[in-house]
Structure formats: C-alpha cells, structure tokens
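Quick start: read one record
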Amino acid sequence: MAAGSPGAALTGPADLPRSEEQWRARLGEDAFRILRRRGTEAPYTGAYVHVQAAGSYRCAGCGARLFSSDHKYDSGTGWPSFWDVAEAGAVAHHRDWSMIVPRTEVRCARCQGHLGHVFRDGPAPTGRRYCINSLALRLERAPASGHGAAVRAGPPPEGGQGGRPDDGEAGGDGP
C-alpha cells in the first residue's frame, strides 16, 4: 500500500498526519469520524463483525498491529470483539466520561486513533471484551497456509496477552 492511502503502514511518528485536513484526506469521512472524532458505527453494520478470516487487525490510521484473529470472538453485540490485544502496549486505555457512566476508551497507542471501548464482560482468560469499530481497523489476512483461528463463540484458549486497562469500566454494549 502506498503511504497516504487508507490503511497504509507508516514508518515512524514523523509520518503521521499533523492536521485534521491531512487525517481526513488519509482516512475518508467515515473513518475520520470514528478515529479522530471518537464516533461509533451502528451495530451490525461494520465490515468485520462476521469476518472469520485468519490474520492481523491493524489500525486504519497508522497500520499498527492491534488485534489478532486468534483473539476475535462473537460477542453478539454487533461490533467486532476481541478478548485480548495482539501485543502488550498496542492500545492505550483512557477514561471516557462522555456518557452518564464512565467507560474505558481504547485508542491506538501509536496514532491515538479512537478504536472503541473495553468492557469487563468478556471470556476467560482475560475477562475483557474489546468492542471495536470496523472502520478503525484494516484486516491483513494471513496467507492461506498461515495460522490463525476462526471467530470463536466460546471461551478462548488459555494464555492471553493481558491487555487489561488499569481502570475499570461500567459495562455497556458498544464502542
């Protein structure tokens, strides 16, 4: 993918857009609303809600690897859900007071793009449900002979990455 095209992997912080106009040009209006304006797509409308392909889910803003299909499961909420992050430090957690009850917002640690929210009602071993907007993600599919897992309806295998936020959240349905 060419630099400057949606979902292109960037090489360093200097490559990140600096102005709102640059972000809007890079992302398009819908992804800009999610990633830079903390928007939420309607449930069951996102491109990755029902996707079962193996691969890595990358930030649509900067290309950072955020989630793995090995951690994706069907939460029944209408948004792609993951029980853990791909690697420790991939996402940043921020307290979100935009609703009456506080929640924990999830952002890309690299570009600070809004991804969604994390809740404490997910499966073992983490107990987390990262509820993420499809427009904030780009799926990098694993090669046909690669490894990865299909979407899980039940609990994941033992040994998650422990991508837990430091602060709690009240629950809720979506990003």
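The mean pLDDT is 82.
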